[in-house]
Amino acid sequence: FICSTMRREEESSEDEDEEEMKALRDSARDRGNKFEGSARSNLDGPPDLGDDAFVPRSKPSRMTVSEELDETEEAAVNDDLRLSFPIGFGKMKNTQSLEQVHASTRRPGPKESTLEKMVKEAEAASKGLDLNQSSAAGEESAPAEPNDESEDESGDEDDSYVKKITDCIPCSHEAVLKGHTRAVSALSLDPAGARLISGSYDCSVRLWDFNGMDASLKSFREFTPWEGQQVKSLHYSITGDKFICATMKNQATIYTRDAVKEVEFAKGDMYVHDMGQTKGHVAALACARWHPQDRALCLTAAIDGTVRLWDVTMCDKKQVTVLKAKNTRGQKAIPHAAAYRPNGDVIAACDDGTIKLWDSKAVARGSTQRAHAEAVGAHTPGAEATCVAVAGDGFTLLSRSRDDTLKVWDLRKLKSALAAFGGLDNFFDTTAAVFGPGDEYFMTGTSVRRAKDGSAQGAGRLHVYRRATLEAAGELDFPSGSAVSALWHPRLNQVFVGGSDAGVHGLYDPRVSENGVVRSLGRQAKRADFTNAGISQVGLIYAPHALPMFREDKARTTAKQKRKDRADPVKSSRPDLGPVAAMQKGLAYPGMQTSRSFAQHLFKEAVGPAGQDYLNQDPREELLKYAEDAAKNPTFTAIYRETQPETVFDLSEERTEKRAKPYSW
After folding, report:
1. Is 229 buried (19+), middle (13-18) or exposed (0-12) by CB count in 10 A?
2. Strand 242-247 and strand 373-375: pairing?
3. On the CB side of 52, how many CA atoms lie within 13 Å of its CA?
4. Are residues 339 and 293 in contact, defined by beta-carbon separation less than 8 angstroms?
5. 3-state class of 292 per DSSP?
6. Got the DSSP string for 38-82?
7. What b-and-e string marks burial along 471-505, b requiring 16 or more CB atoms within 10 Å of the CB?
8. End-to-end distance of the chain based on CA atoms, in angstroms?
9. Most buried of 182, 501, 572, 604 (most Cβ within 10 A)?
10. Which DSSP letter does residue 645 get?
11. Coil, strand or helix at 298
12. 199 close to 231: Cβ distance less than 8 angstroms
């Protein structure tokens, strides 16, 4: 009976303990859920954890009621600490879809021109109304329509505008590559369309990799070819494994695909009059181009009046051929722009207004003194040519000049231009003119002036023309500034324009453009890692007990080290001391040797210690001791003693001063 009674009491006590523990667990769980809800409400919003997200939970373990309550209270107290860590883990979903990205890069529709505003003002004035009043009256008279329909109508207008322009070029969307600080003067894309290089007036070159770039559109490399020298020209080779860079220096440079300097061109002698006898250019470069068929050949043009053909395997020693540009009088002409034809012929536009052509076959035979064909008076003499471009068929030529014109030529008939387009403002020496894919269209940019505050006084434009009809096909506005450099890649079907606003504008159409900047925009930009926040601002961390192989040398700027550097003749660049000063300071003097020759030994033994006094003697006084003896007994001038006149000095105190007479005509 006693045993059964004790067993029943133990079972009842265990049941009571289990009920009490269950109640405590429920209360603790409620408090934890309440804390988690407050933590989520303090954030900007709960992140989308995804379907496969995992939320860590504490592993159940044996613990007392007091320990579990203490942990819950401690977690409730440390709200700020828990808010610093993510609530869940797992793959996060993209915040923006590709459609939203393209919607953000869509170009706006055309703005109302000044002429249209003037016409509307004239119509309103004829009716006796103000322009604002007439617009208000029109709004009152017009029936009210839903907002959705009005938005659809405006969207249709924009779509009609974009559709009209995209008949020529892919320009419905625009992405800007930023990084330069001044106008972008040169652009080039490799044949595969994977990498873009841009040069600027800020003397820097940037490389953009579309396959590795995300939506942030940041360049992966930047370098300065020559300090203080503006970039004039950039061009990829036909294989895309290297590119050539021309700056305002007289030496071009070839870089690998990863911007590693491979070779530097030879430098000419500026004191040689004949430019054909120098190893390279002697003045600033104007442009550089690769051969369209041979990856080992390229050309450079400079303001020294020559176009030089190079072999990249020996360009550091000497050029292959020198083509001299001369005007009708036989004087030097400056080629500011040059290019290759598909068959290897060389074309150059000079400052005398002529366009010159050298036949590659004749050049191979040695005929380099004169151009084999030229267009005289192609542009205004004295106006700098900024670009020449040849179509894929090798017969149509574009020439752009600082005389605000763009001209189209047939290389088989250079007597007159096929078409001339004027009124195209050009304020830059690298304004480009390029053909589109298939040579169906060609285009060029225009310039605008800037105000004192740096803002553009108008909008630069990209003018597009049809090659078949030689008529204008459309134009695009760039309100941020001038359109300087440009290219239209046939494989990507995208247009890149370098502007004076230090940006590279990438124009594309998602329906017809492939890869390139479209691929980069499709990648979500990387988020900042908050776990490393502030670590980069700590600086160097010194561990005094670290191993010698891991120690970092501290900067020695103490006074003791400065005194040692001052005493070191090499570090302080101290000039050599004379024998007297060196002997006074107890230092070695020039000519002093620790080991003596046999003649020096005999001299010291002969004169003795007293003979060393010559170090403290004045050379002038020692020589004047023999002046009187030399005058009485001349050794070398005794033969002239009888005929030598006597020197008479005027020792009188009164001297007449001769004054210079004033100059008169």
Report:
1. middle
2. unpaired
3. 4
4. no
5. coil
6. HHHHHSSS-----TT-B---PPP----HHHHHHHHHHHHH-HHHH
7. eebbbbebebbbbbbbbbbeebbbbbbbbbbbbbb
8. 157
9. 501
10. P
11. strand
12. yes
Contact by Cβ (8 Å): 135, 444? no
**How many other C-beta atoms are found inside a 10 Å radius of the C-beta of residue 137?**
13
- Contact by Cβ (8 Å): 185, 203: no
Distance (Å, whole) CA 392 – CA 115: 39
Residue linked to tokens 């820097």 = 204
Strand ranges of the sheet holding 242-247, from the earlier edge strand across to the other edge: 231-236, 242-247, 253-256, 261-264
In the prediction, which pLDDT does 103 show? 85
Which single residue is written with the structure tokens 């502007």? Answer: 499
In this structure, the strands spanning 471-478 and 205-209 are: unpaired
Residue 399 and residue 410 in contact, taking contact as beta carbons nearer than 8 Å = no
Q: Which of 242, 363, 366 minimizes the C-alpha distance to 296?
A: 242
Q: What is the pLDDT of residue 149?
A: 41
- The pLDDT value given to residue 636: 77
Tokens of 657: 């001063």
458: left (phi over 0), alpha (psi -120 to 50) or beta: left
In the numeric block, the tokens 């009976």 are attached to: 1
CB contact at 8 A, 459 and 479: yes
3-state secondary structure of 10: helix
Sheet holding 285-290, edge to edge: 285-290, 297-302, 306-311, 321-324
Pairing of β 261-264 and β 285-290 = unpaired
- pLDDT for 499 equals 93
Residue 190's nearest CA partner among 295, 275, 276 is 295
Contacts of residue 167, Cβ cutoff 8 Å, sequence gap at least 6: 473, 474
| Rounded-to-integer distance, Cα 159 and Cα 447, Å | 28
Buried b (16+ CB within 10 A) or exposed e, 369-379: eebeebbeebb
> Taking the CA atoms of the chain, what radius of gyration do you get in angstroms?
42
- Residue 332 per-residue DSSP state: B
Residue entry with tokens 């012929």: 345
Structure-block tokens of residue 627: 């002046």
Report the pLDDT value the prediction gives residue 320, as an integer from 0 to 100. 93
Residues of the chain under the 50 pLDDT cut: 34-69, 82-83, 86-89, 113, 115, 131, 133-163, 594, 663, 665
CA distances from 160 to 130, 163, 166, 662 (A): 30, 5, 10, 87
Instruction: Enumerate helices (H) and strands (E) in the chain, giving the number of each.
Output: 14, 28
Per-residue confidence (pLDDT) for residue 623, from 0 to 100: 85
- Are residues 201 and 500 in contact, defined by beta-carbon separation less than 8 angstroms? no
The pTM for the full model equals 0.63
How far apart are alpha carbons 595 and 601 in whole angstroms? 10
Tokens read off for 288: 């550089």
